[in-house]
Design goal:
Elements (H helix, E strand, L loop, with lengths): L6 E5 L7 H11 L3 E6 L2 H13 L3 E6 L5 H15 L4 E4 L14 H29 L2 E6 L3 H4 L7 H21 L4 E8 L5 H4 L4 H10 L8 H12 L10 E4 L7
Parallel strand pairs: 1-2, 1-4, 2-3, 4-5, 5-6, 6-7
Bound molecules: nicotinamide-adenine-dinucleotide.
Length: 252
């Protein structure tokens, strides 16, 4: 896919085996400039090095998406430096497998702050810039958990936050369609990354994969392929949409 002359901001893209890093890699391989924003400074440096080694063009931004002040400051600096940002991928996310009876207010807020409020802050502060350019592609990471209820990885707070991301994305799509800005979500099912890797025994993984019609967990490439398409110029008439990426485990 061609991203020549375009700049993308991908949040939560530092994690080595994560979805965001693969999205950043694909956009840079398509000729785009990628800004990788994450709270984890050490992994950020490694992510930029990896992409640069593949002859891509990547920059890092240490950013906690839950802080409105830091988001505003960081975006002002980035827009000043790169002069335009065409693509935003709201990928930063966390989960906790806590049952509804055991979720504390603190944990509820944490899950909502990273997954939903962070998506809101970054989107809200980038939209005036995209409106000015009369162009933008926003892709938000939701989850199958937001559609069919939680499961082993996410509690009810995670399901609720991801369902909220989808609703937010649709509302932004309606408000921004006349400014050349699209807003879409992807809803991955079980994807092999650090977020899931640490929580599964081999036996549990086999059992889960057996329940998926495609008989395997998804890969970061499976998700990044769909995100990259929604980030292209060619996807201009698709907005307010959600693409399921789950090997058939949830079909609606
Ligand atoms: N892996 C799956 O099975 C799966 C399924 C459905 C949806 N998702 C969603 O996809 C996205 C990526 O997940 P992943 O599996 O690659 O996770 P991951 O844990 O590998 O990566 C998440 C990244 O977000 C960063 N992050 C966390 N809090 C942050 C904050 N406050 N500000 C900025 N960055 C922050 C982390 O440092 C990390 O690099 C998440 O939104 C997740 O909810 C994942």
């Amino acid at each position: 896919m061609n991203f020549e002359g375009q700049t993308a901001l991908v949040t939560g893209a530092a994690s080595k085996r994560g979805i965001g890093r693969e999205i950043a890699r694909q956009i840079s391989q398509g000729g785009g400039t990628v800004i990788i924003a994450d709270i984890n400074q050490e992994m950020l440096e490694n992510a930029v090095k990896d992409i640069d080694q593949e002859k891509g063009s990547a920059y890092s931004a240490v950013l906690d998406v839950t802080s409105e002040e830091k988001v505003k400051q960081s975006l002002d600096e980035l827009i000043g430096k790169f002069s335009k940002i065409d693509i935003l991928v709201n990928n930063a996310g966390i989960t906790r497998p806590t049952g509804v009876l055991d979720i504390s207010e603190e944990e509820w807020d944490l899950i909502f702050d990273v997954n939903m409020k962070g998506t809101f802050f970054v989107t809200q502060h980038l939209l005036p810039h995209m409106k000015e350019n009369n162009y933008g592609r926003i892709v938000n990471l939701s989850s199958v958990s937001g559609k069919r209820g939680g499961g082993i990885f996410g509690g009810s707070h995670y399901s609720a936050a991801k369902a909220a991301v989808t609703g937010f994305s649709k509302a932004v799509a309606r408000e921004m369609a006349s400014f050349g800005i699209t807003s879409n979500t992807v809803a991955p099912g079980l994807i092999a990354t650090d977020i899931t890797g640490g929580m599964l025994t081999d036996e549990k993984k086999k059992q889960l994969e057996n329940d998926i019609p495609a008989k395997r967990a998804g890969t970061v490439e499976d998700v990044a392929n769909a995100v990259a398409f929604l980030a292209t110029k060619e996807s201009s008439y698709i907005t307010g949409e959600e693409i399921d990426i789950n090997g058939g485990s949830h079909i609606d």
